Amino acid sequence: MKKVLLTAFAAASISVASAQNSAVNSAIMNHKNGTLDKAQADIDKAIAHDKTKDKAKTWFYRGVIYQDMIGNPIYSKMTNDSTPTLVLESFNKTVELDGKDGEFGKQVPDRLNMLYGQVLNQAVEFHNSQDWDNAITKYDLASKINPTDTTSVLYAAYASTAKQDYPAAIGYYDKLISIGHKTEDVYKAKIQLQQATEASDEQVLATLQDGLKEHPNSVYLMQEELRYYLKADRGDEALAKLEKAIAADPNNASLYAVMGNLQERSKKLDEAVKSYQKAVELDPNNFDAYFNLGVLEYNKASEINNKAAKMDYATYQKQGKKLEAEANKHFEAALPYFEKAHEIQPKDEATMQNLQRLYTRLDRKADAERVSKLMSN
């Protein structure tokens, strides 16, 4: 009698297990036939049953079925914002149960790449409609799907900046740096956000120094570092660093341009001119050096004009015209520098504004109008 009962119990167990395996197989068949609603119902039953809930095959097809519903014009209505997360969890569980080289585990990477594209497209749609919160949520999910990808993290930083959540944006730039995306633009953006959030000088300097380790010839990073050194009354330290850098790399035009900037800030204008001239000698396309040479000449002219403007009428009658002529010489000297800077960077607004002022002051109306049209385009 006992033997008969055991046989009956075993038969019942086999029947239940078979039924649940049948649910998985039915889900697969319905998926192949395109009836994803039925496939979903079958796989949901299988994922909840003790006999099939720990099988890689069950989890893999759960991910496949729900993923294919996302992009389906009919069945996408049965999905929601949490569906991509469910798909990711399904594929992660597949690898956990089957390993990376198992029958189902080895199929997961291609499916994750597809999921990444789906989620990123959703993020971009939210981004384009300026729905920053939903965009950021999708970017975060895309980053979880592909942790080494930089696109989703970078655009999350952009979205956070647009949302004016600067601490969050800084966090995304830190994440980019941590995964090896250490471009100059990343450091520049982080520094500007730190400055906008009134981070301490020490924090900004730390970012600048990290950036300079990766981009030792970055003019922007060098100039910003020098600005903080000067602010902290560390000008001598800044000068020593530059002199050491130039000694190690004497043909680096960028270093001379930064040296000129430091000398200019220290009111050593003649020395600054020599440094800028050395920079353009080494690099005929050094925009910063040409621009700053133009500014130095322009400022000399403005100072002379200001002296003339402060004269009383009698003094002006005697000396004013002579001063104005001297100022014009400096305005004329500034012009070729700004013209060259404009040639190097034709879309730079500050250069065009200075050119327009100079052309107007030197009575070159046609050139002033030409530059004005360029600025309005």
From TrEMBL:
It holds the Pfam family TPR_11. PANTHER family: TETRATRICOPEPTIDE REPEAT PROTEIN 6, UDP-N-ACETYLGLUCOSAMINE--PEPTIDE N-ACETYLGLUCOSAMINYLTRANSFERASE SPINDLY-RELATED. Residues 1-19 form the signal peptide. TPR repeats lie at residues 253-286. Keywords: Repeat, Signal, TPR repeat. InterPro entries: TPR-like_helical_dom_sf (IPR011990), TPR_rpt (IPR019734), Ycf3 (IPR050498). The keyword Flavoprotein does not apply. This is Tetratricopeptide repeat protein. Gene3D superfamilies: Tetratricopeptide repeat domain (1.25.40.10). The keyword rRNA processing does not apply. The lineage of its organism: Bacteria, Pseudomonadati, Bacteroidota, Cytophagia, Cytophagales.
